[in-house]
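Narrative summary of target 7.
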Amino acid sequence: THGGWVEWSDWSSCDCDHSTGTGKWNRTRSCTDPVPSCGGNDCVGETADNGTCNDQCCQITHGGWVEWSDWSSCDCDHSTGTGKWNRTRSCTDPVPSCDGNDCVGEAAENGTCNDQ
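Modeled conformation, tokenized:
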């Protein structure tokens, strides 16, 4: 009886190289359907197959700030003649993912204003 290959296994998970943004994975099969016997030939071919993969998390994405919002209206303190306002921004351009760094800095900024 000549040997026969079983179906390839599923691909392994993607083993990412974050420095290049690519990855490798593999799958295997065995010569057991049927097993060669009584002088039959072994299967011809490889028992392992390697491939490249580009899992989303192979490419680290560091966070980036969106533009600051407009300043809020001036909240005046009439006893001093000054006021306070603020503005915000978010770390969503892009959102950090796959072990990427969060944005550096503050998401909110306060200031003083002198609204007429």
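The mean pLDDT is 89.
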